Backbone:
């Protein structure tokens, strides 16, 4: 592994030298700032072997560094072991950020290179400020991966499909009116969208260009009288093209987008989001064009679900609850001492039970099935090489999600395999207490996501522990499994609005021992209004029991027990009659132990 990784870095340095580049950066992004880019963009994995979804690789003539976040520290260290690459821990004291690293290491006469299509304009602006101070040059039109990656995968070519209004709840015409009203308020002529989830939501269009993400690789330009869609023509059926014609959506080839940008009249005023467009988009616009940098209006519009989306989402969680409860029944009735059951077997069974559900379209991320010490790695993915056998005495953590026409799901359950220790049960129960504390909270309108994060996290803090990830995130409607803006993170000033779908997923991770995560999806809804204003709470829509074999009920107070009893009753009422007789009987027994 070491020789292979270092040889690829050596090849990169050859082309760096040829192009007079002193430092070169490769990101894990595609041209659209997607969370999960298609195989074509997985250059960091190709070079380093690191398979995580968060990473930035910086190479100079003597050294190479890979930045990743707390979810992947253990995994990254294992996967780059033996190579020259040094891991850099994001947001950890003692490790510089990529910006701090460039500031410290590049000087006058140096040249910093990257593919500008894979770096947001906001990040480019930060690098540009550093370059002005340190007097080095930036070269942003060089894709060295294209030079060395001989068997690089092609860009995807899969067909698109329309999402019917009975699922979307709102027509394209209704949505575009809202966008144009915002454009009018901001006094702009053009709005440029390049984020695939926003485009999919606005057009009621879905595809299969990115594994686990139902999107079409495309760019969108919204004018006052029409919409320009830049995407591969062959992905659209005659029915979709008729839909485009009816709605004044004009189709252009995908790679003609950048040429179009160069021809936009300099007197036009453009709305775009510096955080969500790549740097080459802005660089191709005439310098005299007035740009309004503002969050894409679609971000908040799609995060606040309409009534049909919410009802459909509740229904898809019934289907998903049936599937995962059936999986739990299967898992809990295995003899792990006699049978050779491994992590990938659990992945296969989760998929099997989901496929049995009508309207299932596939997973929305790679299923995490992590046993024992593997579960301490937040985003560990089992492989044929790492595929651990399940044995009595530890935890199996399963984090998975499915796409249905009625919405998307994201659920984590941690299961006791055989008898586990009292410490493990204690920590499991505290993670459950953390989840319940936020799930049953009543809070005033305008409460921020940062404040909500603290409610759940404080339960874990009381143990002198913490977890290196957000407490939760928004979930798209047949869209991205991680959706802005409702991310439950300590510093977030985003307000939790009514009718958002959000996960609650606290955890405890003890390196080289085990990990625990419990995750439900919730809908934020108004409950009452009084002299102090409007109040909200959460409706839990995930319908899968917690593992009673891992709970110490004495650690739960009366209000927590009451919440758990109501939750268990809801599971029985919603999915009980959809299970086989023996599964339903088992379910009643497993959730009625206090």
Residues:
């Amino acid at each position: 592994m070491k020789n292979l990784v270092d040889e690829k870095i050596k090849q990169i340095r050859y082309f760096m030298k040829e192009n007079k580049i002193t430092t070169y950066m490769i990101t894990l992004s595609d041209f659209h700032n997607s969370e999960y880019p298609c195989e074509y963009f997985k250059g960091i994995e190709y070079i380093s072997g690191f398979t995580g979804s968060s990473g930035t690789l910086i190479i100079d003539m003597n050294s190479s560094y890979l930045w990743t976040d707390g979810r992947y520290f253990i995994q990254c260290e294992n996967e780059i072991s033996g190579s020259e690459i040094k891991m850099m821990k994001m947001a950890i004291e003692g490790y510089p950020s990529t910006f701090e690293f460039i500031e410290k290491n590049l000087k006058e006469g140096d040249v910093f290179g990257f593919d500008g299509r894979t770096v947001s304009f906001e990040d480019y602006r930060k690098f540009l400020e550093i370059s002005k101070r340190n007097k080095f040059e930036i070269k942003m039109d060089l894709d060295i991966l294209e030079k060395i990656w001989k068997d690089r995968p092609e860009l995807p070519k899969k067909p698109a499909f329309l999402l019917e209004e009975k699922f979307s709840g709102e027509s394209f015409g209704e949505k575009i009116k809202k966008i144009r009203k915002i454009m009018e308020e901001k006094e702009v002529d053009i709005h440029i969208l390049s984020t695939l989830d926003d485009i999919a939501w606005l057009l009621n269009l879905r595809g299969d260009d990115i594994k686990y993400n139902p999107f079409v690789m495309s760019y969108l330009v919204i004018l006052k009288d029409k919409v320009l869609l830049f995407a591969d023509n062959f992905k659209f059926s005659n029915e979709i093209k008729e839909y485009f014609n009816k709605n004044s959506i004009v189709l252009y080839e995908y790679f003609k987008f950048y040429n179009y940008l160069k021809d936009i009249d300099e007197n036009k005023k453009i709305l775009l989001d510096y955080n969500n467009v790549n740097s080459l988009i802005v660089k191709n616009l005439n310098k005299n064009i007035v740009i309004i940098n503002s969050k894409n209006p679609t971000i908040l519009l799609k995060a606040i679900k309409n009534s049909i989306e919410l009802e459909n989402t509740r229904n898809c969680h019934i289907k998903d609850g049936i599937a995962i409860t059936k999986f739990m029944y299967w898992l809990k009735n295995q003899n792990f001492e006699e049978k050779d059951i491994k992590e990938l077997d659990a992945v296969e069974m989760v998929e099997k039970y989901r496929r049995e559900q009508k309207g299932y379209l596939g997973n929305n991320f790679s299923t995490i099935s992590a046993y024992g010490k593997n579960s301490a790695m937040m985003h560990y993915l089992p492989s044929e090489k790492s595929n651990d056998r399940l044995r009595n005495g530890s935890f199996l953590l399963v984090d998975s999600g499915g796409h249905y026409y009625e919405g998307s799901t994201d659920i984590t359950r941690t299961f006791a395999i055989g008898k586990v220790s009292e410490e493990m049960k204690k920590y499991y129960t505290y993670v459950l207490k953390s989840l319940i504390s936020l799930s049953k909270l009543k809070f005033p309108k305008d409460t921020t996501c940062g404040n909500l994060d603290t409610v759940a996290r404080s339960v874990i803090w009381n143990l002198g522990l913490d977890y290196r990830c957000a407490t939760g995130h928004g979930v798209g409607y047949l869209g991205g499994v991680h959706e802005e803006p409702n991310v439950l993170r300590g510093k977030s000033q985003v307000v939790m609005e009514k009718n958002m779908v959000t996960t609650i997923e606290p955890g405890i991770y003890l390196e080289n021992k085990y990990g625990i995560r419990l995750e439900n999806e919730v809908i934020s809804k108004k409950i009452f209004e009084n002299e102090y204003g409007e109040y909200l709470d959460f409706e839990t829509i995930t319908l899968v029991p917690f593992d009673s074999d891992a709970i110490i009920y004495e650690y739960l107070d009366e209000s927590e027990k009451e919440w758990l009893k109501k939750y268990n009753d809801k599971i029985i009422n919603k999915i009980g009659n959809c299970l086989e007789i023996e599964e339903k009987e088992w379910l009643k027994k497993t959730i009625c132990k206090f």
In short: The chain has a mean pLDDT of 96. The radius of gyration is 25 Å. Residues 307-332 form the longest helix (26 residues). The first strand starts at residue 23 and ends at 27.
